[in-house]
Amino acid sequence: MIRTSRPILLTTRSLVLLALVLCVALPACQRGRGAARADQAQQQPAEAPVSRASLAVAPFGIPRDQRQLLAGTIPADSVTPGPETLTILDGILQSTLQANPSRDLRVKNIVTSCINFVHRGPNPTREENLRYWQQVGQCAKTQLLLVPMVVHWQDRSGSSGGSGTPAWVILDLYVINVANGTLVNHFRYDYQQKALTDNLLEVRSFMQRRGRWVSAEDLAREGIERGIRELGL
């Protein structure tokens, strides 16, 4: 009985060792392990930096042409806001980010100084604009740079009880990895309020707004808060 069992154990071990040797030698196994490493490497820039890295925030800007957008497009009929609206948007963005006490948030004035210090050509390409923002982030000594832009700003006409033209806002939030100059993430908020009778999917939003026609500032606040959540900031 003992002599019979030993050869079976040796054979089983041999088969296991042979399988391991073949897996190491076969290209298919090697490709499988390489693909797993590649997937993990692609996830790291989007997860690790955003959750723990220092963050600096640029002031809201208005893109003059498509090249100034790091992603996305500008509608042909876009309407731009005035400077007072940009100040309001900066305040909303800062207060939303400060709600996270664990975030290492750089002072806004530092980024503004760096924007004035770093040179940008008169007609830069989209890639050159990305490089420009990387240099701004390097000047601010931050790991991540949040670049917000307002693409379209149409306020409501009328009152909260009834509006002839509803508010419509398009915002872009870009997160740049300063170390390698890549666009880590992008959030676009493109929303125009509609009557409940025009879109039954708006029931939840309708109830949250208490059946009111909201202003463009209200929509912008919703968009910024949602964007910060989805970007993991």
3D architecture notes:
Helices cover 48% and strands 17% of the residues. With 233 residues, the chain is α+β, with helices and mostly antiparallel strands. It folds into 2 domains: 2-43; 53-230, Rossmann fold, CATH 3.40.50.10610. A hairpin with a 4-residue loop joins strand 5 and strand 6. The longest helix has 26 residues, at 27-52. The relative contact order is 0.14.
What order do the helices and strands come in, and which of them pair?
Blueprint: H1 2-25, H2 27-52, E1 55-57, H3 83-98, H4 108-117, H5 126-139, E2 144-154, E3 157-158, E4 163-165, E5 168-177, E6 182-192, H6 203-208, H7 216-230
Parallel strand pairs: 1-2
Antiparallel strand pairs: 2-5, 3-4, 5-6
Helix pairs in contact: 3-7, 4-5
